[in-house]
Amino acid sequence: MILTTKYWGLLVLFLALGLGYSIYNQITTDNNQQFHGQVVNLNDGFGYQIMSGEKIVILQEYIPGFPGKQKFVSEEDAQKTVNLVLSKLEDGKSPVLLPSDLAKLNISTAVVQ
What we know:
Layout: H1 2-31, E1 35-41, E2 46-52, E3 55-60, H2 75-90, H3 99-104
Antiparallel strand pairs: 1-2, 2-3
């Protein structure tokens, strides 16, 4: 009788530990959501946004790292920049872009009239 009670106690303990671990693992997974991005059409040019889940964490309406307010001339240029920012975030780096980063991507800086 005492042996059976010990087995039930151990079973309940293991189930509680398993449930606790499952809840902890779910919370940890939710906090490590992947980032994703999309190009935004701004009528007179393009920008982009970086999102975590449904939350916008970066809204970039202008080419970063350049003086003034220059929008991306093409959707392709904005997409190349989105891809670079996402790769930096995935590597745990700052998403800040320098003009040299954009030069490597051949981003056009022509001002749209």
